Amino acid sequence: MREQALFDKIDLHLIRVLHTVLTDRSVSRAAIRLGMYQPAVSAALKRLRDLAGDPLLVRSGTGMVPTDAGLRMIEPAAAILRSAEMLFSDARGFDPQTATGTFRIAASDYLDPMFLPLLVAQIKSLAPLMRIEIHPLTSDSDYHAHLSLGQVDVVIGNWLKPPEDLHMARLLDDDLVSLVNKDHPATRRGWDADTWLAVDHIAPTPLHPGARGIIDQMLDEVGLRRNIAARCAHFSLIPDMVASSLLVLTTGRQYCERFTERLPVKVLECPIALPRLVYYQLWHERTHSSASARWLRERIKAVAASLRPAPVGALAQ
């Protein structure tokens, strides 16, 4: 079949059926999600199989699984649907009160724990019909690819040297401190650089094997190395681990101070002069001019600004 003839046989609804059937791995579940009768979905799947020259979905035990060809189609189909979602809505501009669609945000959990709850609350207040997906930045995350493919609209995190091939905006910065159990010896004796380096530190699990975290990259630049006794992939759980051990967490002051009322922990100054943590939002050229993506970035910027500590002079007034 000539390429043009094949293209003429494909419509957006067929792509939507393809993606839903392959991700749900069930014709009956796909029919419910699509609001269609099951025979209509089965007929669409038959058309897709004829077009692909492949079964796409085959029986395995009591369920169904995509074939290799079907698996390769999932992401391109998702990208087509996302692009179509943006195609005319952005051309008309973005009205948050009536807009429908999905905001996809990948965010580091090193952020102030209030950030994402406040951001979600603001988006749902101003754009009630928009859906929101929060994606983690994990060892499986290739945020460059996810941004370029439209799997996420914006990435929020901190980098010692932000990537230069993406658009970025600085959100906030914070000084580094250490969080310790309130009975940690350092709360009584204090510590110097050598003592701080030697204590048992807890750090996030690297994003990929051999990677160095932000704090350790900073220490590398001044020829120092700390004693990392524990690592955890779930940053939000680390303060509770600190509260019940002699482990030391070093990260932004704003993050640490959120836990001092809830947990038996204390914030101590870091005895080594290290650069401040800087948090950015990153986005790809593909969404740079998108009205909805610009609106999302403005909301992110506004929430970050609302979390910045007031200047000392302002507090005294």
Helix run count: 14
What is the oligomeric state here?
Answer: single chain
Structural class given helices, strands, pairing? alpha/beta
Distance between the termini: 76 Å
Number of domains: 3
Briefly, what CATH class of the largest domain?
Answer: Alpha Beta
Architecture overview:
With 317 residues, this protein is α/β, with parallel strands linked by helices. It has three domains: 3-79, Arc Repressor Mutant, subunit A, CATH 1.10.10; 93-170 and 278-308, D-Maltodextrin-Binding Protein, domain 2, CATH 3.40.190.10; 176-275, D-Maltodextrin-Binding Protein, domain 2, CATH 3.40.190.10. Helices cover 43% and strands 21% of the residues. The chain has 14 helices and twelve strands. The protein has helices spanning 3-8, 12-24, 27-34, 38-52, 68-91, 115-126, 143-149, 186-189, 193-198, 214-221, 238-243, 253-257, 291-307, 312-316; strands at residues 57-60, 63-66, 101-107, 130-136, 154-158, 167-174, 176-181, 201-204, 228-232, 249-252, 265-269, 277-283. The strands form four sheets. Strands 4-3-5-12-6 form a five-stranded mixed sheet, with helices on one face. A three-stranded antiparallel sheet has the order 10-7-11. It has a two-stranded antiparallel ribbon with strand order 1-2. Strand 1 and strand 2 form a beta hairpin. Helix 2 (12-24) crosses helix 3, helix 2 packs across helix 4 and helix 2 (12-24) crosses helix 5. The chain starts with a helix and ends with a helix.
What keyword list fits this structure?
single chain, 317 residues, alpha/beta, Arc Repressor Mutant, subunit A, D-Maltodextrin-Binding Protein, domain 2, five-stranded mixed beta sheet, three-stranded antiparallel beta sheet, 43% helix, 21% strand, elongated, disordered C terminus
